[in-house]
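ok trying this again, last paste got cut off
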Amino acid sequence: MCPLVTVVSESTESILVVEVLPVVSIITEQIWTNTIPVTSLWSLVPEETREAYVSGKKTDTAPVLDLLPLGYSKVLGKGRIPQIPIVVRARWFSKEAERKIKEAGGVVELVA
């Protein structure tokens, strides 16, 4: 049963009865992840390496981008990615990010 609080106002000489409801808060487990869009992936590759791949000097290998040591755990599909293969390692990928990386010839690797 909820307790009732009676408040008497001196100025209007009226009685106000207020019902106090209990506050119930349910906290579910929330997982916070640092996310990065696919459009920002190439900014994490060192500049010398990036220039070599963009200019076409290196075509035999693909850069490997491990996002966990960089502080990111999820890749989102927002933006565009250049048509240059890249290997991306992360805990989570959105469907759109996975599709865009694979269309560019890259590889998606899930890391625990």
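PB: full thing came through this time. The first strand starts at residue 4 and ends at 9.
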